Amino acid sequence: MLRLTWVQPEDLLGHELRQAAQDGREPSAVAARWKAAGGCEAPARAGASPQPPSRYLRLLAEDLLDELADLPSRSAEHEPTDLRRIKALCREWPDRPDGDPPAPARSALEAAWLGRAVGCLLGKPVEKLPLDAVRRLARSTGNWPLTGYFTARGVPGPLLEEHPWNRRSAATSLAENIDGMPEDDDLNYPLLNLLLLQRHGRDFTTADVAGLWLDELPAGRAFTAERVALRNLLCGIEPPLTARHRNPFREWIGALIRADVHGWTNPGDPAAAAEQAHRDATLTHTANGVYAAMFTAAAIAAAATGTQDVHACLRTGLSVVPPRSRLARAVTDAVRLAAQHADFDTVVDELHAEHKAYHWVHAVPNCALLAAALTHADGDFTGSIGRAVSGALDTDSVGATAGGIAALLTGDPAALPDHWTAPLKNRLATSVAGLDGTGFDTLAHLTWSLTHREASRP
């Protein structure tokens, strides 16, 4: 029996009910109808419930998804998706620079690519595991705080039976198994965005992103909001409706993991980076899901100049986020917590308590964790990725973004500890055509070639 993840209406409805409550709609009447009909809650960790529903329940789920979409939202005024409205709310929106800021050295971009891969790889084997499991697995081998990759060597058998590694990742991401960087969507999307800029330049449209995905992104390599958007495209639905139609994942982390290239290719111009990230993100996301990508792109654009510390970069990221949005409040509070507590476990505990209503892949808690990790580690590479992954949310995604930013700030791949980078063997696996096996030095060169204004259209 095939239970396709992330697209079946009966599985989407529970997520949409949660999303509606979070973005200021009133879903209680719809929730009562779904429960009375025998509908189940959304799967907590998986993408599909184990058994198919009756035909009646599936049709009811489709109707209720559409009904929820029509409910008015109390947060719409403070959390728009339209770029003009976002800018109007951001009183500190960055000015565009005079002339072209200097492009980052290729060595800095190679460090950023490597750092993104290392942080992702660190988080892969514990993705989907609860916080207590991540802590117990790491402590059982003396790797807490995290300063190296996870290993199964020395972990007690009963603990592994209780909390097994991520099934898809353990064979390629535990320390004893690493042989190059294995495929991951957190690296696939930056690769796709390289192709996007090569083919369409900086003035790409959201429709250009959609066309590229249809040509180059295997549906089985897309998840949550991205998989729903692909389904919508194949049903003839056009952007930006692709982000809203029966898509309860539109505020999850997917747009954030696509943002790095927009920052790397706009050094010193966080406004341009945020605008590129917005055009990319609105294929799949709305509101806080879009802000997460804009925040990340702007912060990376600031980091790419090599002149700002991590704290200034995070402040720049916040300048493109509506200040009364849930994401802005969460990031601001997380930075404050990180500055208050010497023990990062205490920071994580408070973040989990504050954001317990959100799914572990939602952009709001993950952006909060990202900002807290970078702040608490003061931008140190090992400290940043270790803290990001130890927070036990979307471990590979937050680890990747934290690693990319912290590594970019070092400016040189030689500044990254060898025990992190050597196992990658300068080799990246991917299903993006033509890029499988590419080295990080080559990716840095390709990225560098896109950082100049004259490269706005190849």
TrEMBL record:
Coiled coil: none annotated. It comes from the Bacteria. Pfam families: ADP_ribosyl_GH. PANTHER family: ADP-RIBOSYLGLYCOHYDROLASE, ADP-RIBOSYLGLYCOHYDROLASE-RELATED. This is Crystallin. It comes from Streptomyces asoensis.
